[in-house]
Amino acid sequence: LEGKQFINQTNLYSKEDFEIICEHNKILRGEVLRLNSHSTKFIFLLAGFNRVYGDFEPEAEEFLKLGYNIVAFDYIGVGFSDSGKVGLGFKEAHELNRVLKYIELNYSVDYKVAFGHSMGAMTILWHEKIYGDTYDKIILEALYSSLRTTLTNRIRSYPIAAFPMVDLILGWSYLLDGIPFWKFNLKYLMGKNDKQSYLILHGVLDRKTRAEQVKRALNDIALVKLNFIEFEKAAHEALINNNRNLWVTSIESFLNLD
Length: 258
Description:
By secondary structure, the protein is of the alpha/beta class.
């Protein structure tokens, strides 16, 4: 999967590349889009599986308009970063923490928001679970209710039986990479976190991570500060490309809430 950098089309911000040494001396690479207005608000963009940070070009454009500096990077194993295995959000949470510490050390940061798509959403939730509340607000797009559920949904789209394939894949991922698949669920990752503010953006036509499954899991948790926005004609995709106006207005309203 080839890397893709942001294209600077305005003089409103500068681009600053960064490199961070991670586990096993693997080098992670990313970019900061820093507004010339010297804003101290930062948003961290976390890509989904098989996506690179440069795919966030339209999202970055809108967040810059809202006054946020952009932080985006490729996970180890993806794009410009060194080769390695992808950890479905668990390993990437530790990489995100290294990026966060780097940004806090090198920039003046007063307000932090995280935006994650699919696996990127799980990366943010794992980061919160492992390292504690970090962000002022969190935006999760195409979130899945559990790793088991989303794998089942995806396997059923092929002419093979979901059982026992799902359990074989999950068990193998644990044996090879130590990924605790049984903890990849919203009750474990989000439960008892009544202080955090969440915005969930989801496509009604998403067959990989179904909206009704996510809503059912969230209802069981009953979080206080949670907003759920559905995109009627969207599947498992970058929702800004499906309905840009709804995407922008939903996020702007959420970020402006006290």
